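Much of what follows relies on a compact textual record of a protein's fold. The record below shows the convention in full:
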Amino acid sequence: MATATATTTATTPEKRKPVRRGTVARLVVLTLLGLIFVSPLIFMALTSFKNRIESAAVPPTLWPHDPTAEAYRSVLTSSGTPVLRWFVNSMIAASANAALVVATAALAAYPLARMDFRGKRVIFGLIVATIFVPPVILIIPNYLIIGKLQWLDTLLAVIVPTAAGAFGVFFLRQFFLSLPSELEEAAALDGASIWRTFLSVVLPLSKPALATLAMLAFLTNWNDFLWPVYVLFSPESQTLPAGLSTLQSANNVRYDLLMAGAMIASVPVLVIYVFAQRFIIEGVSRSGLKG
């Protein structure tokens, strides 16, 4: 008994050492990778608190010698560059576009995942095939349509054209396929219609996928630069990415102002991601279970 105890005591540390070393190695690697990915954001934040001369210094300094918030005051109070107005426009456009993307994708993906009708595979194949069409090809047709609808220089021009996309349909279809069909069968036995089943059973169970798609659509619209430049003309109608480009030309490459504007543009994305991270991970992991 004593011998067995001694043997167990002697061998236990030897078994634990490789596990501990492996865990430490993984933590070190993940920490280094995290620092590599976060370092541009950190440098951007520090540069936004530098003065005009230090922000353009060569070689660049990491920490500001005399921290100041003058760049933020200049960006937020300048009459020629209404950054707060651009921020509000971007929030409205990105939120509305995300809501439309989720609504259209869910309504299209559910029949393709759960209903049987002639030509379903052909329709799904055609939808997925549009993913391979470069978006830049659609600029001129979309511009002509927006012009006919008299939506130029309005937020509708950056909200509606991308409201229906193939990626959202494909993503939600894969998630809907992973849901147990027994839930819908039970709802049908209780007398629920297809529409009621979709609203009361399928959508509540799809919150992770819906949140993930909404987040991706929000980010895509929020970071879009090329399309708003084409369809938004007046300074009051600009979104934040397009407006920041005019900020650069207006101030002759004031890096402190650019970094301050970029930090303002980054805050909503970071906040949304922190709160939606759990849903995003769950939605992405479950959307590939079944095809």
In short: The chain has two domains: 2-47, 80-286.
